[in-house]
Amino acid sequence: xxxxxxxRLAHPARRSPLLVILLVLAAAALLAADQAGLLGPLRxxxxxxxxxxxxxxxxxxxxxxxxxxxxxxxxxxxxENEALRAEIADLKARLIEADALKFENARLREQVRIEQAYPxxxxxxxxxxxxxxxxxxxxxxxxxxxxxxxxxMAVIAREGSNPPALIGxxxxxxxxxxxxxxxxxxxxxxxxxxxHENDVVRGVVQGQWQRGSRLLLHSVARDAPLAAGNTVVxxxxxxxxxxxxxxxxxxxxxxxxxxxxVQETGRERIxxxxxxxxxxxxxxxxxxxxxxESKK
Length: 296
Description:
It contains three helices and twelve strands; from the N terminus they run H-H-H-E-E-E-E-E-E-E-E-E-E-E-E. It has 296 residues and is of the alpha+beta class. It starts with 16 loop residues before the first helix and ends in a 5-residue tail after the last strand.
């Protein structure tokens, strides 16, 4: 059976009165000896020993403080210092250039993968800015007529694990820039189709950016088979529709998005479509310059 044991906390050791008395007596003795002149020889010997050490330490300090002045006054050292600075600046510039080339190579590899999977000839371009026209969804890309861009050409981009998908159509072209009307703009209308089992359902995709950058698939027959999860692609029939903008250059089977909901209204069916790529987040895109079906 265990018994409770009481433990006493150790008290800190008390200072001995004898030690305090001895220290006071020693201090008084040294003070009396100094007043009697007995510590003079000891002080002299100490100064004789310490003075050389202090002198050497002072010399080291003077030498170190003189180094910056020598660097500034010596033309050769100054030139060498400037050359080293220039070399460092050049190395930094090369590192930045290497990073830029690495980034560009990644984009080119992505373009090659897309061209191998689809019958398209692509031209990559940076998205420069969203145009200030608040009534329409337009972006400016860094490619124009000098690079073969023409009005009506499809512009695609890729986001995450989604397939490369349509984000808009070239509306106006300058020598080195082009304005792209985003497919989420309300005035954007493109012929589209859905492959549902063994059927092909055609309709028109219209922008609905006010509703969370969604799209609306309409002009679909009431009895057409549509279901949530179906993939919507371009039909390549926009030139046959009575639309102001020329879209004859948009090839068929360019991915657009996924159907989220389906509704029946009157004599037609409509569907809400979520784009594969949000055009407002795109910073780099490709213009489809040509569509070569023979590559399939």
